[in-house]
Specification:
mainly alpha; about 0% strand
Length: about 100
């Protein structure tokens, strides 16, 4: 019985060593995964920051363009109104000339 107990104890030690190796291997893999996740998070943060800066540039450009277009539109509207007034004046003058000619 003493031999059987030693053999059983030996088998338990072998299994325990195998489990220790697996735990060590898993611990190393977990550390590697943690490191990979940290790198991915850092890269994602960098991309988010870059994306935010690019969006801000686009928004600023659009705001400037809209402002410029608003000024142009006001000027064109003013010019069109002036042309309409000039046309009305010309029509009145032509009507007056036509009346004088008849």
């Amino acid at each position: 019985m003493d031999i059987e107990l030693k053999e059983t104890f030996g088998m338990i030690l072998v299994k325990l060593d195998s489990l220790d190796e697996k735990v060590t291997k898993n611990s190393l893999e977990i550390e590697s995964i943690k490191s990979d996740i940290q790198i991915i998070a850092e890269v994602q943060k960098i991309h988010m920051d870059q994306n935010e800066r690019e969006h801000q540039k686009i928004i600023t450009l659009i705001d400037k363009e809209i402002g410029l277009h608003s000024i142009i539109l006001k000027n064109v509207t003013s010019d069109v109104r002036a042309l309409e007034e000039d046309q009305k004046t010309l029509e009145r003058e032509i009507s007056g000339v036509i009346r004088k000619i008849r």
